[in-house]
Amino acid sequence: MTEVHCNSHAYRYFKDASTTWESECQIFLSLYGKIYELEDQRKVAAIEHQLEFRKKMLPLFAEIKSNCEELSKSAMPNSFLLKSLNYFLNHYEGLIVCTRHIDVPLDNNLAEREFRAPVVGRKRGLEPTPKEVQKQWPYYLV
Hints:
Layout: H1 7-17, H2 22-44, H3 50-55, H4 58-72, H5 80-90, H6 92-95, H7 109-126, H8 130-141
Helix pairs in contact: 1-2, 1-5, 2-4, 4-5
């Protein structure tokens, strides 16, 4: 069994860290931008050429990894920047599985979108409606 990780999660870690560490995270966001550009091109390419686009991503992933390794030496301990660097480094092998297997998606955003509606609906079912709140309001005044 092969462990696969979501590149969207790794990207979000860098994106969130960029609010404080903008200059340090810019290279990672830029490289992920190039990776997703290749993915967009892959989606419209003929099936026999799609793996070529994924293989072009490998040097970009390698560059992200080397930058993470270098920057992690000087990043502040317990910072969100270090957390994002470590997330990428710890999940690197799972993040690049998509470069070897065309049937493995780059991220799992589609699957997460499919799960979102039932979860949100379930959570909303637990929240009281405005009429229920009005009925309970006198009890809060006591």
